[in-house]
Amino acid sequence: MREIYSCLEDYDLAIDDFILESQTFPVIQEDPTGTCPYCQKPSAYRLTAMPGGIVPPPQEMQDEKEIDG
């Protein structure tokens, strides 16, 4: 998974693109070292994949699924 840099104005677009591409939520960190690909302004954030991939649901949700199934 690639990382996506984003300025403050295009933050919502970056999150949408990240979720569409990776099918998971990003880890969001402040990072002014990149360039926003949407407007070419300096970045404010860097979105990356969570280490280890997709996080399993909390135990309560798994328990409900077993009861319903």
List keywords for this structure.
69 residues, alpha+beta, 3-stranded antiparallel sheet, 2 helices
Low-confidence stretches: none
- Global Rg: 15 Å
What integer is the average pLDDT?
83
Strand line-up of the largest beta sheet: 1-3-2
Question: Alpha-carbon distance between the termini?
Answer: 33 Å
User: How is the biggest beta sheet arranged?
Assistant: 3 strands, antiparallel
Tally of distinct domains: 1
Work out the number of β strands: 3
Helix percent reads 25-40%
> What structural class do the secondary elements suggest?
alpha+beta
Write the element-wise H/E pattern from the N-terminal end onward: EHEEH
Fraction of residues in β-strands: 15-25%
| Number of helices in the DSSP assignment | 2
Global shape: elongated
Protein name: CxxH/CxxC protein
Organism: Proteiniclasticum sediminis
